[in-house]
User: Fold this.
Amino acid sequence: MNIILDGILNLSGLGIIIATLVLTHVTIISVTIYLHRHQSHHSLSLHPIASHFFRFWLWLTTGTITKEWVAIHRKHHAKCETAEDPHSPKILGLKKLLLQGYELYRAEAVKPETLDKYGNGTPNDWLERNLYSRFPLIGLATMLTVDLLSFGIIGITVFAIQMLWIPFWAAGVINGIGHYFGYRNFETTDASTNIMPWGLLIGGEELHNNHHAYPFSAKLSNKWWEFDLGWSYIRMLSFMGLAKIKKIAPKVYSKTDKQRVDMDTVRALARHRFHIIKIYGRKVIRPVIRQECLRASQSYKLLLLRARKLLIREDIKQDKKAHELINQVLETSQTLAIVYQFKQQLKDLWSNSKQNQGKRIERMQKWCADAEKTGIDVLQEIVQYIRGYTEDKKYAI
Assistant:
């Protein structure tokens, strides 16, 4: 056996591929569990053994400094889809995110104001100060050495893949495609999407729209048919006593026998406003648009199709042309104008944070009563849904 060519492990080509995938998968899990859900959002706590393993592994495989990663991610949430967002494809373009995501990360990581404002609460122990943050390249050099000893000369390729793995998947795919293509369970005011319903390749981070709707949830899947691999690992760590789940997104449903808005209704609507606006678009605005298209002229039908996203999506910035298109459509359809007006009123009910709960209940009751008086079927149906809107308490951690 030639150790220089084959390495100590002397693996076959397939064995090296499997080993590389295992190594990169551990890195993905370290990012999603440790950096993202634990450090950035505090949705779970980790036992010191698990926490330090993830931190050590990321130092070896990425040279990531926890404070930098956390600060940049928190700033992304705080400034999402604005000129201050460190990585918005809507501002910078998808191509730039896919090809230069790592460069954008490094450019933000050297800004002291970002680290000071958004990097609070990250590790600052002796190891962090004297090794991990001070000498990130030593970790990478150690990993390269291990790869060469384990796999031989092909270890250089294994190492290169490890170095590219996170910049491609996290900086490129999640930060880029995750704000450009996919489906949305929630009408958040940013452009986040779920890339696919099965979070396997990136440890659950594919469910990006779910995360932006509930950033403090340790579980990223929301629908029964979605799967978050990272959540499975968290449950295993919890079972082993190495993690404690602090928060997950509560389940919501509508009580069919509930006839009056109360405090629970108002609180649930405020907490799950992105969900209720999504439901409103699906149950109210879309059916009205479909009905209008059935009896519309060809020219007006084209206008409706052009305006559909503007009437439903919450992340689209409405410029002068967009306002003109919306007004043109609403002036032609009284029914569409009414349901769109009620949508805006519904959003206003939770936008005033200074308003006391009693006043909010009163306004919500009036909204329901006024919506019923319109005689529009879809509005009357959504009123019944909203009156019964509540959280399943057993899911609130």
Q: What stands out?
A: The chain has two domains: 3-245, 254-395.
